[in-house]
Amino acid sequence: MVLSDGTPYAVHMQNFLLKLGINALALWLTTRLYGGVYFEQGSTWDVLVAALVLGLVNALIRPLLLLLSLPINVLTLGLFTLIVNGVVLSIVAGVTRLVVANFGAAVVGALVLTVVSWVLDSVLHVLDGRRQQL
To answer: Which residues cross the membrane (predicted)?
Structure first.
């Protein structure tokens, strides 16, 4: 099956699963690096569900929150985005087994999650670039 952009469906599904895995690993590493964010039960299933919910909230709710907070985001030169990311992490914690100690922990946890995701994504792109060169 080929999608409208000309790429096979399997490639899109592979990219989705890879991004889900990176998000799950980043979320798990965040719970290990920062004590304010943790899982009630640390099973792999809980981490994958939380990563999936995080992806959905980032895709559906976060853009709306950023749009609504645009004036204050401009005034703070983008720093208010940290608060929005904390709200997103709190929403994920509300519907999964992820536990956030308080809102401050959610903001710090979102910052740690962002850095960990960025590092993992960078490593993956470097490895992907090396694979394509071979």
So the answer is: 16-35, 47-68, 74-92, 99-120
119, 97 contact by CB (below 8 A): no
97-113 tens-digit pLDDT: 999 999 999 999 999 99
Measure the CA–CA gap between 62 and 47, rounded to whole angstroms.
Answer: 20
The CA distance from 85 to 112, in Å, is: 11
Please spell the DSSP secondary structure of 24-72, one letter per residue: HHHHHHHHHH-TTEEESS--HHHHHHHHHHHHHHHHHTHHHHHHHTHHH
Q: Hunting for tokens 């703070």 — which residue is that?
A: 76
Residue 35 belongs to what H/E stretch? none
Output the pLDDT for position 131: 57
22's tokens: 């990176």
Residues 6+ apart with CB under 8 A from 82: 107, 110, 111
